Amino acid sequence: MTMNFEPFKLVPVGYVRKDGETFIEILPEFREAMDGLAEGDWIKLILWFHASDTPERRNVLKVHPYNNPENPLRGVFATRSPYRPNPVALYTVRIHRIEGRRLYIDDIDAFDETPVVDIKIFVERYDCPKEVPIEEREAHIRKGRMIGEVNLIPRKAEHLDELEEVSPEEYDALILEIGPKTTTLTAKELAELIEALKDVYENLPVEIKDKLRTHVMHSP
Question: What strands, in cross-sheet order, belong to the sheet with 172-178?
């Protein structure tokens, strides 16, 4: 059965540049999308391998992995081959420095002038999935709050039964993301964290606490 697919449009947000160093040059119209990125961040790059974008290469569905004929043929979905129905490439790289619209990154094997389709931050919970006590369906994403580099995502509780039988040490209450790293806090650990933060706050200089109170009073 032959299926007819409607084409859809992808636009480059920037290009890979190789000039002694490797960097991503973001196009001027997408400059604001860089806000929030920082040196040291890990990011996911989505590239379009334009050099492999030919009808012949798009029709290649099996390859010898690593282009070694001694390796048995495998479907391209089980490889990192640039030959595929849509020549999309994924990289995880670290931003070493930011200069204007340039993101200086680790060296990658993409060619100079390769179009960048999108950039996303690296998040361990999504990009390196592992067994975590709080399943995605139980995470209250809309209640998540970001404070600096810390992301707090509470657990939904309305659908849980027999909570009387669950101790605070057993009940996982919060997903805590710091940059790309993810951990989970139990209700007991959350309570201990709150008390520790109270102690930290109480030990702030009086002048700082006064300014914070003034800021809170004048906040809308």
Answer: 145-147, 150-154, 172-178, 181-186
